[in-house]
Amino acid sequence: xxxxxxxxxxxxxxxxxxxxxxxxxxxxxxxxxxxxxxxxxxxxxxxxxxxxxxxxxxxxxxxxxxxxxxxxxxxxxxxxxxxxxxxxxxxxxxxxxxxxxxxxxxxxxxxxxxxxxxxxxxxxxxxxxxxxxxxxxxxxxxxxxxxxxxxxxxxxxxxxxxxxxxxxxxxxxxxxxxxxxxxxxxxxxxxxxxxxxxxxxxxxxxxxxxxxxxxxxxxxxxxxxxxxxxxxxxxxxxxxxxxxxxxxxxxxxxxxxxxxxxxxxxxxxxxxxxxxxxxxxxxxxxxxxxxxxxxxxxxxxxxxxxxxxxxxxxxxxxxxxxxxxxx
Length: 327
What we know:
By secondary structure, this protein is an all-alpha fold. The protein has helices at residues 3-18, 27-39, 43-56, 61-73, 77-84, 92-104, 108-120, 126-138, 143-155, 160-172, 176-189, 194-206, 210-223, 228-240, 244-257, 261-274, 278-291, 296-308, 312-325.
């Protein structure tokens, strides 16, 4: 249903409750209503819909799943498990909910079995596998995914979207070695993916291996020399490795490519400031602030550079300007 149709459903249901009268709803309308209230975190109203629906359709399995989900998220896992036991159609949604209940109960092996069941269902998609990633992340059980990846790769001809999301999840959780291994696996299949070369570069940066990060950036730029994200990230890598003259060249290339000129000006200014070329830094910071006169950080950086040049009046003036933008 579209948003307007859902709003009309809500209005009809809420009028029925307020006026203590009875209205007819189709089962799928009640399921849609329950999920709508859940999405808006109106949990009391969600429960009203579910209970009303089960009074009308006591054996409706989608509504039973809604009730089990509500109970599970409320901490009543055993009640939720009891309702699930009455559901006969073991769909993707059924197994996703079962896996969450098992993880809450610390039945990790049972959760893994539920995840494998999802992957092996004929109707499952790679997006369903990514939903599994999200659940494992939410419950701090990323280790489970290493046991699931082989099943996913065996089930889908192209598991790249899953592998990429898993690699990003590893990067977010200080598991750079695993992320690097996954990106290399992706690039073995598709070596012409500039985006994945750039992600590999970022993983190498987190791993403190700047030379390999630069190498990955070069592969990305060999595929698309005008990829401004790769250009700017290579500049970051050069900056981090202390190769400041090369970083300046890279950021100037970025400046010529990007529509985000203020960002490029700030990167150039930061590099010149590190080289103690404060006049050049100020030149680019003034260009940046001309594009955004409410950027408190630029005024602060101007103050720092003026201070380093001994121009205390200008430093104070820019500090006051920064405070006026962000007190």
